[in-house]
Structure formats: structure tokens, C-alpha cells
Design brief:
The complex is a heterodimer of chains A (321) and B (320). By secondary structure, chain A is mainly β. Chain A is 0% helix and 51% strand. Chain B is globular. The chains are: A mainly beta (321), B mainly beta (320).
Chain lengths: 321, 320
């Protein structure tokens, strides 16, 4: 395999410079692209403050770019998908939402968040469908399509779906458990990347706790938000990974972008260095790189991603050269 | 109408000593027959914590097969441990349903977690026993049956059965959380799934029992058996509000089916109701029908959903 390299295009969207629905002011996390004839719609998760307790609520919004990925055409001015009902898996946030075309519809695979008492949160993957070219999405039901199971005990989320040869493939993450790393610390979680398949995009069969990407940092590596793209006949996956605790402030333990490739949809070879995306000292992505999303537009392969502070001040892009 | 003759309360958790985890409640009785005794699994609770919150354990009491009112012993320890930090069954294992599977005994149970906006959520776990049902090891740290688009939360009350080499689970699934006097209360309906191996389940995705007393009627604790050429289901139901009273609390309903999919509800046939006075005068729920040596019995709960134990009734005649 030849050498591949990312050329950074810088930060392309800052949520604090725009007016977003649902009283969201900061965060544009986990950008996900849907390419149209003359623009690229990028969904992201932004945050409002829950008036009940000061905690965050994540909402989906989008921004439409010209195909140069520089000029903003518009930003969503109404709710793309409301949060879930009382007691549902997506009551306290949707972050992220992966979008994939299926005939005339757009399927949105949501990662729904609901708060817990002994740990901060549980997640599961839902499905919502758009029949208006992605302006709004309606759930197929109040519950999730993929959630915790016998050997994936918690935190199923971050689904990325791609249809290959008529089969729906989903790469997602599952939690392996929660741990308190210090007596006075909040519990932290560890998660790994798994795979499921489906004939219809609704009913899924998991590989059930098969970790498909090898750890680089050891058993306490948390892997998140896989994205898969075909480049010259080979599948490439990008994701982010970090240590399981002390990762929020400590840059050396924080998120970086990982990479793996596969020729058979089953075995993945990890190779974070080709192509490598690294932090840029002094820039918006100097301390952290996370939530990658790869897509093709006008013959070029792009990577959208977040930088410092998990995307509080927006996302940027890189192009494969 | 069936004719059940009440035999009285058979087990009172407050009378058990030396088990701080079994202070009160003996909920969801479910039986396993042995040569000379009947093991009745139930779920119980230690005292509430300083915030008034409970965890729940499951255990059993062994009754003399020749005299079901003679208690032979009570489990020394809970049959299942609570789950680890952040798992679905961290705060409770209730209720439990057991079945023999060759040499092993398999248990399905409701695992309880605590939530912020609503008090709890429940999913169904599985465990196996190699020591005759005294202790069980979980098959995984996650649930074996969990949420789906039409069953968004509160999957509980599992009863496992095997008919014609197919495994069946009857259970309840939450429909919506309803705010009642500032408190979130779940509305749930009776559902079913089947499986070839007891591990990978296919949901029927159907409300099996039509709602009768109101749209938000809560239906709980389905218990299915086969007799007289058809399937019988006893279950409990209550109103969605005011149900901690005699007027709106749990009663026992009945339905029958020839194919396990389509059920005909006929509560008038159930044949058992609250008593004029005594331990089951306010509510009656969690029926479990079982046969021992030619007699058909129903174990059931009385007031406060089994806080003071469970009782037995015997059927006069046959299930048909």
C-alpha cells in the first residue's frame, strides 16, 4: 500500500459564530456528511443547557457547505430531530447521528443518551428516517435498534452504517465496563469497536463483543466513532482512541485519530501512521483530535474531525493527498 | 369460571432469621419440582437505604412436596449477585423464572438499574445453575433480552417455558412513562419472544392481551401453562393511577390461546379475587400456576405486592 497523507484544511465551522436551534450555543461534535448535487450537508451534535440541573443536552443540527467545504450556505434553523420521550434511551441527547441514503430516504442512526444514577450515562443506537432530504427525521420507534446485550453490557453507540453488496454493515462501539480509578473520582468507561450486519437496516445481528480493532494503548484504550470508506478498493477505518481516565485535560492521554484497513470486512489491520493525522502545536487542534468522519466529494477523500475540548468550538477538515 | 380454593399464606419473609438481605417481600413466586420437595423462587429485599431506596435479591424456599405448608428450608444466600458498576442489574434481580435444561437449570430475571429522569429501568438477564438451582452464574454481564423500537424500556416479569422444543419468554414491556402526582409511573403490556436456544430471542412485537379496564392499564406477570388442549395465561392487571388502593389495585386476569400468538381474554373466568379480609384483601397479583401430583395450584401475592409473602390456592377441577 502506498503512502497516504492528510493535508489539513483548518477549522471550517465554529458554532459560536452562528445561531442554532434549541438554544444551542457551543459544541459542533462528530460531523457527519451527506453529499448533495451542489452542496455538502454536515450534521453535528451541539449542546443546550438543561434548565433543570445545568447538565448538557445534545441536539442534532446541520450546516450546508459549498463543495469547497469552505463557504457556508446555511445552518439549520429548526429542529432536525427532537430528543426522546420521558424514560427513553435518547431522552438526554443525540450524539452523534450518522446518515446514510437508502433509496429515496435518508436513514439517521442516532446515538441516544440517557442519564443514570450510579454512572453518568447509558447509550444505545436508534434509527430515524427522513423523507425530506434530511431536513427532519422521524423515529421508527421510541426504543433503540441496537443496545446492550449479553456480552456487550453497556454503552452501545456511535453507529456508522455503510451498505456493501446489499448488506447493511454497522461499525459501532460497545462498553466493556465502568471503573472508578480513584476513591473520589467519577466512574470512567472503556469501549471498543464492534460490528453488526443487517438485511434491512432495522434488525441487526451483532458479532457480540468481538473487538475488531487491536488496542494500541492496551486494555484500557477506549476506541470511539468509527468511520469506514472505500479507497481504491480497500476499506479504511478511521476512529479515535484515548486512555480510559485522565483524558479530558491531559493531552498526552487524550483522543487521537486511529486508522485500520481491511480487504475482507472481517479482519482489520491497525496502522495509525499511514495516513497519520497529528496535532498541530498552537492551532485549534493542538491538544486533541477526535470524532473523525471520512467521505468522498468531487473525487477527493475528506476527513472531518474535532480538535481541542471535544469540539466545543467546532470542527475542521483534512483532505487526502 | 375456574374455582380456586384459597389455602392461605404459605411463606412470610418477616419470619426468616439471619438473612439481612431477606427482610421483607417475597414476590413473584415461581416453582421448580424436585422428587420430594417443591422449590419456590421469589424475590425479596433488605431494608431500604437512607434515601428510602431498595435493592432486590432472589432466593427460594423449599416446601415439602407432600405438604406444601411445611417449609423445609430457605436459601442461605441470594441465588444471584447484583451486577457491577453501571450494568443493567446493578440494583436488583427481580423477578426470576427458572426451567430445567438437561442437567443445568436456567434462570431468567429482571435486572434493575436506576435512572435520573425516571426511577428505574429493567432488562432481562439469563443465568445458569450447576448445583441444582441453589446458586446461578450469569451468562453475561449484559441482558439477554433488551430494548427495541416498540419495547423502549422496562422489560421485566420474565416467565420462561419450553413447548415443542421451542423456548418462550413471556414478559412485560413498558409503553410509556406517565406522570402521576409528580411521580413517573410506567405503563406496560404483556409481550412474548421465542428462541431455539434460549439465548438468541425473536420478539413477537405484539401486545398479546387487549387492554380492558383502560387504555393505560398496566399488565404484569404473565404465567403460561398448557392443559386440556390449549394454553392458559394468568396475569395481573391494574389501573395506571391510584393503584396503591383496593379499588384500583392489582387483580388476576385470564386469557387462553391455541397458538400462543392470538389470545382471548376472559377475566371473568380467572376465578380468584381479593378476599373480604386478611393478607390478600386489597390486591391479588403475580399468579403462578403449577401442578404437583395431580393437583393444580396457584401461588400468588397479596397486599403491597407481596411485602408480607405469598399464598397458595388449589384448583377444584381441571384447567380446560
Amino acid at each position: 500500500m502506498g503512502a497516504m497523507a492528510w493535508k489539513k484544511l483548518g477549522k471550517i465551522f465554529d458554532p459560536t459564530e452562528h445561531s442554532l436551534p434549541n438554544e444551542c450555543h457551543q459544541f459542533a461534535q462528530a460531523p457527519q456528511a451527506l453529499v448533495f448535487d451542489d452542496y455538502v450537508r454536515v450534521y453535528f451534535s451541539t449542546r443546550a443547557v438543561d434548565k433543570n440541573n445545568g447538565k448538557f443536552l445534545s441536539h442534532i443540527a446541520f450546516v450546508d457547505f459549498a463543495k469547497n467545504l469552505r463557504d457556508v450556505i446555511r445552518v439549520s434553523d429548526k429542529t432536525v430531530i427532537p430528543l426522546g420521550k420521558l424514560g427513553c434511551f435518547d431522552e438526554h441527547g443525540i450524539f452523534p447521528m450518522n446518515v446514510v441514503r437508502n433509496r429515496d430516504a435518508v436513514y439517521g442512526y442516532t446515538c441516544g443518551w440517557s442519564r443514570r444514577v450510579s454512572v453518568s450515562v447509558e447509550t444505545a443506537i436508534g434509527l430515524a428516517v427522513s423523507h425530506d432530504r434530511g431536513l427532519t427525521f422521524q423515529r421508527v420507534g421510541d426504543g433503540p435498534v441496537l443496545s446492550a446485550s449479553l456480552h456487550e453490557p453497556c454503552l452501545v453507540g456511535d453507529g456508522f452504517v455503510k451498505v456493501i453488496g446489499g448488506t447493511f454493515h454497522m461499525w459501532y462501539i460497545f462498553g466493556t465496563g465502568w471503573t472508578k480509578y480513584a476513591a473520589d473520582a467519577q466512574p470512567d468507561r472503556t469501549y471498543k469497536i464492534g460490528h453488526a450486519s443487517s438485511a434491512d437496516g432495522v434488525t441487526w445481528i451483532k458479532e457480540e463483543a468481538r473487538q475488531i480493532i487491536a488496542d494500541r494503548l492496551g486494555a484500557l484504550e477506549s476506541q470511539a466513532l468509527p468511520t469506514v470508506i472505500d479507497i481504491d478498493g480497500r476499506l479504511h477505518m478511521f476512529f479515535c482512541y484515548r486512555e480510559s481516565f485522565d483524558f479530558r485535560i491531559n493531552s498526552a492521554r487524550g483522543y487521537r485519530i486511529g486508522h485500520a484497513f481491511s480487504d475482507d470486512l472481517c479482519n482489520w489491520t491497525r496502522d495509525d501512521l499511514n495516513p497519520r493525522l497529528d496535532v498541530t502545536p498552537g492551532a485549534w487542534d493542538s491538544h486533541m483530535l477526535c470524532y473523525p468522519h471520512a467521505f468522498e466529494c468531487e473525487g477527493k477523500v475528506y476527513l472531518l474531525y474535532n480538535g481541542n475540548e471535544f469540539g466545543r468550538y467546532g470542527f475542521g477538515a483534512a483532505v487526502l493527498v | 369460571m375456574f374455582k380456586w380454593k384459597k389455602l392461605g399464606k404459605v411463606f412470610t419473609p418477616q419470619e426468616v432469621d439471619g438473612r439481612p438481605w431477606l427482610k421483607e417481600f417475597a414476590q413473584a413466586p415461581s416453582t421448580l419440582l424436585f422428587d420430594d420437595f417443591v422449590r419456590v423462587y421469589f424475590s425479596c429485599r433488605p431494608a431500604a437505604d437512607s434515601l428510602g431506596q431498595y435493592v432486590s435479591y432472589s432466593a427460594y424456599v423449599d416446601l415439602n412436596r407432600a405438604d406444601l405448608f411445611a417449609v423445609r428450608g430457605v436459601a442461605a444466600l441470594p441465588i444471584l449477585e447484583l451486577g457491577g458498576l453501571g450494568t443493567f442489574d446493578e440494583f436488583g434481580t427481580y423477578p426470576v423464572s427458572v426451567i430445567r435444561n438437561g442437567e443445568e437449570i436456567r434462570a431468567y430475571y429482571g435486572g434493575w438499574t436506576r435512572c435520573e429522569s425516571v426511577p428505574f429501568n429493567v432488562a432481562i438477564g439469563a443465568a445458569t445453575s450447576g448445583d441444582g438451582g441453589r446458586t446461578f452464574t450469569k451468562m453475561g454481564s449484559g441482558p439477554v433480552l433488551s430494548y427495541s423500537p416498540d419495547e423502549p424500556f422496562v422489560l421485566s416479569g420474565p416467565k420462561v417455558r419450553r413447548f415443542n422444543d421451542t423456548w418462550y419468554l413471556w414478559y412485560i414491556a413498558g409503553r410509556r412513562w406517565k406522570r402521576v402526582n409528580g411521580r413517573a409511573e410506567p405503563v406496560y403490556k404483556i409481550r412474548m419472544a421465542h428462541s431455539a436456544d434460549g439465548v438468541r430471542w425473536i420478539k413477537a412485537n405484539k401486545d398479546l392481551i387487549e387492554s380492558r379496564i383502560e387504555e393505560d392499564e398496566a399488565q404484569a406477570s404473565p404465567d403460561v401453562c398448557f392443559a386440556g388442549g390449549k394454553y392458559h395465561m394468568f396475569f395481573s392487571y391494574r389501573y395506571s393511577t391510584g393503584f396503591r388502593s383496593k379499588e384500583y389495585g392489582y387483580r388476576i386476569g385470564y386469557a387462553s390461546s391455541h397458538d400462543l400468538i392470538d389470545w382471548t381474554r376472559d377475566d371473568a373466568k380467572a376465578g380468584i379475587d381479593v378476599s373480604e379480609e386478611g393478607w390478600d384483601a386489597e390486591m391479588i397479583c403475580y399468579p403462578h400456576v403449577f401442578e404437583v401430583d395431580g393437583h393444580t395450584y396457584m401461588a400468588y401475592l397479596g397486599d403491597q405486592v407481596g411485602r408480607y409473602g405469598f399464598g397458595l390456592a388449589v384448583l377444584e377441577g381441571k384447567l380446560e
